[in-house]
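Researcher: I'd like a structural prediction for the single chain below. Treat it as a standalone chain; there are no partners to consider.
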Amino acid sequence: MLLVHANGFHGRVFDPVVKCLFARARHRGRAVRVISFDMRAHGGSTVPVSWSASEKKNNLRWNKFADDVLAVVGFVKNAKLNLHVIGHSLGAHAALRAEARCPGTFKSIYAFEPIFMVDAAKLGRGNVFSPDLTTAARKRKERFASKATALAVFKSKPPMNAFHAKAVASYVEYGFVEDTGDTSTATNDGEKQTHGAGVRLAMSKENEALVFANGGEEREVNFLLCDADGASLITCPHVTIARGSTQAGHDKSLVPFPAAMAPIVANVTGGALETHSEWNHFGPLCDPESFTSSVWEHCERSERAGSDPRSLALRRESTVRARL
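Model: Treating it as a single chain, here is the predicted structure.
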């Protein structure tokens, strides 16, 4: 199983999910190999200091994250493993883009709230809530006196105060690097401000914001996952598009954008749509036990139904059974 993380996170936030997957595998008498990794600019995958602003923008476009998925797949395929991919948000987008680019890459795809651009008119009735994540990312605090201080802050504030404790701990442990004091940033008046020793986010808030901003420039989902005739490029026979609650936590009259968009992605890919009303967009990190249960059932359905990656008919048949 290949786990692909969301923007601003890294592969180790899935640690509690991995633990649950291993526990379920032991219970079922199965063997499973679980792989997670840091996409470019996240965690341990650092941005080259030589990149200019334009190079950084171009190299942090969303199609590039599909490149990262395929690079990892190339390594895994050399080991001759059948690969189920499980993606979250940007990671789910990257997994679907990777499959569309190289059909037959995955044995199955489980995509939790993949983010794509869609015409607002296609989102259906109701008011869709889509926060300004680019601005929010730029307001993040990215330097702390220590990892312990950072952990205390993240555990006390939304959204991470609702995360599984191990997910938050792993986010901090593997998402921060030493801030030695020899780095400086420009203040609004152009003066240089040197930062003291401590820790800082491995992925800067500006890089996270840039990834969010680049997402807003993406083409619509059908143009990315379909050919010129409108046929889906996703030939993987077993696709599940999962989503969380269709009610925003702060206002039940609003529909979160990822949840509103999920049925459209399911229709474009021919995937089964699952709704988990008890989750929000961070469901995999808040409730790894239930998330693992959903993922495992998806993988077992795909294995029972067969493994021919070229059979669109099989995928549609599997979709009907999953919905029933």
